[in-house]
Design brief:
Helix 1 crosses helix 3 (114-128). The chain has helices spanning 55-67, 99-104, 114-128, 214-219, 318-323; strands spanning 10-11, 16-17, 28-30, 33-37, 41-46, 49-54, 74-76, 81-85, 89-94, 108-113, 228-233, 236-246, 250-252, 257-261, 265-272, 278-285, 289-292, 296-313. 14% of the residues lie in helices and 32% in strands. It is built from 5 helices and 18 strands. Strand 3 and strand 4 form a beta hairpin. The longest helix is centred in the middle third of the chain and has 15 residues, at 114-128. The strands form 2 sheets. Strands 1, 7, 8, 9, 10, 11, 12, 13, 14, 15, 16, 17 and 18 form a 13-stranded mixed β-sheet that branches. A 5-stranded antiparallel β-sheet has the order 2-3-4-5-6. The structure holds P-hydroxybenzoic acid and fe (iii) ion. P-hydroxybenzoic acid is lined by residues 225-227, 241, 243, 247, 251, 257, 308, 310.
Length: 334
């Protein structure tokens, strides 16, 4: 994928809203892209093309994309539409990584300031989400976004994005979830042992040793497919998440990332990043560790809510090293 950002025009458009349609939803123009929704579908148009997505899929992807600050690399809402993070600027593309759209000459990609895209996506999400539907929750734990507009949502759009700066539960850092933080144990984890660890430092090291029951913390997440930063050591970022149903995006990596399956199982579909051609399937079971390479896109499917640890290397120089082939796309040669 071409990654030379030096010759690219970066735009900073404002989102423009129409009057509400019959179902109560506004349409939006963001530069050359137009977004509208009806009871079931989102319609996206760009100068030479048009795409339709199911509304639940679109909103679950869009809200995560904003909350993750566009994440690492590519966020495909589906095979056609998505964003690429260049850390300060963001591409919005339609069909740019789809061989069929490219062959038909309807692929399109534009680069914007991250701030303008984030603002635009938030305006769209707020207009299209009604009270009773929470795109961050598992489908069995929330209402449906289908149908005409209902009462406006009142809660926050984005939740669970408060990263630990060193590690959860340290004085002054983010708290470990508990009944006191208003986060009960999810129905799927009622059988998990929730003992607290014993902390026994050697004399002289009191207050310097820290431990938490991570299973207890994860079991209390009220959202799904939404990693939260649990511990940070320099650029090494440890995130945990509880997964149910499907990852609402297809993630195209700009670096390696590591998955440690902590419970149950996830089926990962892996595709070539550029073409979308299938490369394989991985079924990860409790205890399995896997490195997702830097040249793929992947999507996870979790039949039962499970616990996953995601390790990211946040070093800013990595995308360039992988894009130019200076680093192999996988971390180890067997
Ligand atoms: C990923 O794309 O690697 C990813 C995203 C969200 C998750 C887990 C993994 O909850
Ligand atoms: Fe990923």
């Amino acid at each position: 994928m071409a990654d030379d950002q030096s010759a690219i025009t970066v735009k900073n458009p404002e989102i423009v809203a129409s009057e509400p349609n019959k179902q109560g939803y506004r349409s939006f123009t963001f530069d050359a892209f137009k977004f509208s929704r009806d009871e079931y579908f989102v319609h996206i148009t760009w100068p030479k093309g048009k795409h339709t997505m199911e509304v639940d899929r679109f909103l679950r992807a869009m809200v995560r994309d904003i909350g993750w600050g566009f994440f690492y690399g590519w966020i495909f809402f589906d095979d056609i539409f998505g964003t690429t993070n260049h850390y300060g600027t963001v591409d919005i593309y339609a069909g740019a990584y789809d061989n069929g759209c490219k062959a038909a000459g309807i692929d399109f990609i534009q680069t914007y300031t991250a701030e303008s895209v984030s603002k635009a996506f938030e305006v769209i999400s707020r207009d299209w989400i009604s009270e009773g539907y929470d795109p961050l929750r598992a489908p069995l734990e929330t209402g449906s976004p289908m149908g005409s507009k209902g009462k406006p949502m009142t809660g926050p759009l984005l939740r669970n994005f408060n990263p630990a700066s060193r590690m959860l539960g340290l004085p002054g850092d983010q708290p470990v979830r508990s009944d006191d933080t208003g986060t009960p144990i999810n129905r799927a984890f009622a059988d998990v042992t929730m003992d607290k660890p014993d902390i026994e430092p050697e004399p002289g090291f009191e207050g310097q040793l820290h431990a938490i029951n991570l299973f207890d913390h994860i079991s209390r997440s009220d959202v799904t497919w939404n990693p939260s930063v649990t511990a940070v050591t320099k650029a090494s970022i440890c995130c945990v998440t509880s997964e149910e149903h499907m990852l609402p995006v297809i993630h195209g990596n700009d670096r390696n990332e590591w998955f440690i399956q902590l419970s149950d199982e996830i089926h990962w579909k892996i595709y070539d990043k550029n073409s979308g051609n299938p490369r394989g399937t991985i079924v990860m079971k409790a205890g399995d560790v896997c490195a997702m390479p830097a040249d793929i896109r992947h999507q996870g499917f979790s039949p039962k809510r499970c616990m996953l640890m995601v390790m990211e290397n946040g070093s800013p120089e990595l995308p360039e090293l992988y894009a130019t082939g200076k680093l192999a796309p996988y971390p180890i040669e067997f």
